[in-house]
Design a protein that fits this description.
The protein is of the alpha+beta class and 395 residues long. The protein is built from 12 helices and 10 strands. Helix content is 51%, strand content 15%. Strands 1-4-5-8 form a 4-stranded mixed β-sheet. β9 and β10 form a beta hairpin.
Length: 395
């Protein structure tokens, strides 16, 4: 078993770290506080190739593996998770979905703009009454012959105020249940697309999250992704990869809080010595380091399984479940280590604690991840041990 990264992967990690520390850190507190969308920073992410990392170079992307994407997500999330959620949705849910399941015409039309950040993409699955229960889609896309007529409302849409492309999940034949659901590429300047108010959120406050309304939007037939009725499976497959992105975001939030806590505890003195030398704090650092490393292994493993072409659905749910719980637990600890300073904005850790919470909710709550994992355990007779039973010869 080999754990080292390649030179290319290390270079990506270093480039993302430099970008996050130099370009994201300086304004991150103000953007969060005033809910300012990171326009310039997203533009830079596009120029640096962070918005279409896994897209093939022929479509304007970086052609990189999932592990490189995870490394970049981790570094950017240490500093600014508003930027990293925009990055994750664009890479994992929108670009990867179109590239993997789209037609050649869809790929050539949309990927070059999405991969470079000229356009930003949104993934529109959640509805006022269909969050975790994703098959209960009320948004309809009725087949009108040469086009579909799209009507409905989508909730909590990341990049909803700025995106130019939506991947929309909608019901085309209610009587078929989830087998009647389709996925479509919708451009936001088409007639009938309107954007609701921006949500005021606990965390990731500078990302723009909106309700979206579709009213008699004419979607050309050629903008349906995959066969008729493939939409729910499309959403599930795309979310399996998306969860690797959010798991790496959670990992980055936890690791960012840990790095700040180590630095602070070595500087801050009480009772005549740095607080890192008090066992009460030192043991917290030890627990943080250990559990963050365990999360890192799960997250990197899920990306590796995807890169190897192996089944990664349950692995990505495990990674997201564990990394998001670690992020929540250890950002709270980071605030505690910082004491009164941890409770004010200047020291960053209170923001990381607020940002951590959403990683337990979006792209499938922790409870949904447990459903996915437990169903796999039961189906496979409680033998979920893919790494130990897989060899490279099996790939
Ligand atoms: N890959 C392929 N097919 C899959 C699949 C997967 N990973 N998971 C399920 N399916 C298939 C099943 O095989 C089944 O197909 P058949 O009937 O042909 O066998 C079909 O999909 C229905 O599956 P289930 O019976 O398991 O469906 P369910 O109603 O029990 O729900 C669920 C399954 C896992 C709970 C699913 O509804 C789910 O993932 N919910 C959470 C939704 C979610 O993650 N939302 C996030 C919103 S996006 C977001 O947050 C983006 C953002 O902006 C940050």
């Amino acid at each position: 078993m080999r754990f080292e990264l390649t030179e290319e992967q290390l270079a990506v990690k270093e480039a993302a770290r430099e970008f996050a520390q130099k370009e994201l850190k300086p304004g991150v507190i103000e953007r969060d506080s005033k809910m300012i969308y990171p326009t310039d920073q997203v533009k830079m992410m596009g120029e640096l190739g962070f918005l279409g990392m896994m897209v093939a170079p022929e479509y304007g992307g970086g052609g990189m593996d999932s592990l490189s994407y995870v490394l970049a997500m981790e570094e950017i999330s240490k500093v600014d998770s508003s930027c990293s959620v925009i990055m994750s949705v664009n890479n994992s849910l929108v670009c990867w979905g179109i590239e993997t399941f789209g037609t050649e015409a869809q790929k050539s039309k949309y990927l070059p703009k999405l991969a470079t950040g000229e356009w930003i993409g949104s993934f529109c699955l959640s509805e006022p009454e269909a969050g975790s229960d994703a098959t209960s889609q009320r948004t309809t896309a009725i087949d009108m012959g040469d086009h579909y007529l799209l009507n409905g409302t989508k909730n909590w849409i990341t990049s909803g105020g700025t995106s130019k492309v939506h991947v929309v999940i909608a019901q085309s034949s209610v009587e078929l249940g989830h087998k009647g659901i389709n996925a479509f590429i919708v451009e936001t300047d088409w007639d009938g697309v309107s954007i609701g108010a921006k949500e005021e959120k606990l965390g990731i406050r500078s990302s723009d999250t909106h309700t979206i309304m579709y009213s008699d939007v004419k979607v050309p037939k050629e903008n349906r992704i995959g066969e008729d009725g493939f939409g729910f499976k499309f959403a599930m497959k795309v979310l399996s990869g998306g969860r690797i992105g959010i798991a790496s975001q959670a990992l980055g939030i936890a690791a960012g809080a840990y790095e700040l806590s180590v630095a602070y505890s070595k500087e801050r003195e009480s009772f005549g010595k740095p607080i890192s030398k008090h066992q009460a704090i030192a043991f917290k650092l030890a627990d943080m380091a250990t559990e963050i490393e365990a999360a890192r292994l799960l997250v990197y493993r899920s990306a590796w399984l995807k890169d190897m072409g192996m089944d990664y659905g349950t692995a990505s749910s495990m990674a997201k479940l564990f990394a998001s719980e670690v992020a929540m637990k250890h950002t709270v600890e980071a605030v505690q280590i910082h004491g009164g300073y941890g409770y004010v904005k200047e020291y960053h850790v209170e923001r990381l604690m607020r940002d951590a919470k959403i990683t337990q909710i979006y792209e499938g709550t922790s409870e949904i991840q447990r459903i996915v994992i437990s169903r796999d355990i039961v189906k496979n007779d409680n033998l979920y041990v893919p790494i130990m039973t897989s060899t490279m010869e099996n790939v």
